[in-house]
Design a protein that fits this description.
Helix 1 runs antiparallel to helix 2. The chain has about 70 residues and is of the alpha+beta class. The protein is elongated and about 65 Å long. It has one domain. A two-stranded antiparallel sheet has the order 1-2.
Amino acid sequence: MMRMIAFVLLAAGVLALVYGGFSYTKQTHDAKVGPLEFSISEKQRVNVPVWAGVGLVVAGAGLLLARKK
């Protein structure tokens, strides 16, 4: 179980360092006027700080190394 958590932390840290964040689509407004339907979506971006990515990699590596002792 700890080994799987370590690999997830490592993967998340590497992805955070490579991509620097992630984006998602947020549904903001819906309108219905008779037979017409309108929908507005906004694309949002969340930036992940470099220190957070490095921290995840270090935590994952630390868990992997601690398990071997």
